[in-house]
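Write out the bound-state structure for LLP.
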Amino acid sequence: MAGKVMQKAEELAEKYDTPLYVTDGDRMIANYKRIFGTFSERLPTRVYYACKANANLAILHLLYREGSYADTVSIGEIFSCLKAGFPPEKIMFTGTNVRNDELIYLVNAGVLINIDSISELVRLSKISAEPKLSFRVNPEIGAGHHEKVVTGKRTSKFGVPLNQIEGAVRKAIDYGFDVVGLHCHIGSGILESGPFLKVVDRMCDLAESLESSTGVEFEFIDIGGGFGVPYKRDEVALDIENLAQEISDRFRGKILAIEPGRYIVADSTLLLTRVNTIKETPEKTFIGADAGFNTLIRPAMYGSYHRIMPVKGEGKKKRRYDIVGPLCESGDVFAEDRELPEVKEGDLLAILDVGAYGFSMSSNYNSRLKPAEVMIKNGKDYLVREREKFEDLIKNQLVPEELPK
Ligand code: LLP
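---
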């Protein structure tokens, strides 16, 4: 993808300014088709796109058109998915610590509710027993690229604990709910098949034992997302064909649901940022760019590695740089001691593989404006999110009349 967008990068940066997220819509769809196709040719499969990775309406719309379902974690995400065209029946809500007014919204919206705690089930039963339910269980298997994104281990806050799940399902049946699925999510950014296979075994065994002890009949087992992508040149991609084959060998008579976010969008998008300052210091040379951790927080938050390259770097001699943003925090660093072709002020840099948890985790820290987003589709570029304006920074703020004038 990078090559195609890199050719247009200078033109796009001129036209839309920087920092700028640029998504290759064709690449994103190819990723969706690859993961859906690989699993669905082996067993009945539903792909719930985890829209927390990137909830841009144009992206949601394209995925809905391809036949995707949507995995949502907030009513804001449900709102966006409905706007993008998803019918409520194709939306699953997997919230944690859900409020009562949110439960009312879910019931009215008619989405599938994935229950995270017995408290949530009891409170929902007082509102309505109409909605279809699935249960998120804590599978006591965790994995992920960083401690902060491991969700399935025993001490994690997510899901109904394994030792309470049978009681929870019984309670739901007593309330009159139609329990249609069993769900878990072990973590994010997983590049080996081992943890997925372990969790498939655990979930299949658990489904079988719950079916025989409670009489419930699950339509689907959802093993969540977490399918990793390589960010470094030497990382080996997850072998999705092999994984799908091994999963289908273990899976018994249910629909498999998966919730990929990163896999579908990560490598579809790059971030263009303009170099405004080169600072030589006794220790290091800093490249000062106009994007910071307000624009892309993954390096600062998880120490994540993203490839970075000057848009016009060919043939230039290499130097070592720290690549930093404009925020007033020393943690505002994209890369340390990174070798790059020599960079000058005014040059354009591309930060790669930022389609997942890039824009969606951006903020207004330091009162900086959120960037624009562009999508390339069939060779044409479309603005899919306007750059914020200063008015956006203050639009919800009030200075009370009674404060001293
Ligand atoms: N399903 C559930 C219930 C989830 O919590 C998540 C991600 C996914 C699916 C999608 O996972 P994926 O396929 O994208 O790995 N901000 C972090 C990632 C946090 C993921 C949170 N949950 C990052 O930038 O690496």
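---
The mean pLDDT is 96.
The CA atoms of residues 318 and 341 lie 4 Å apart.
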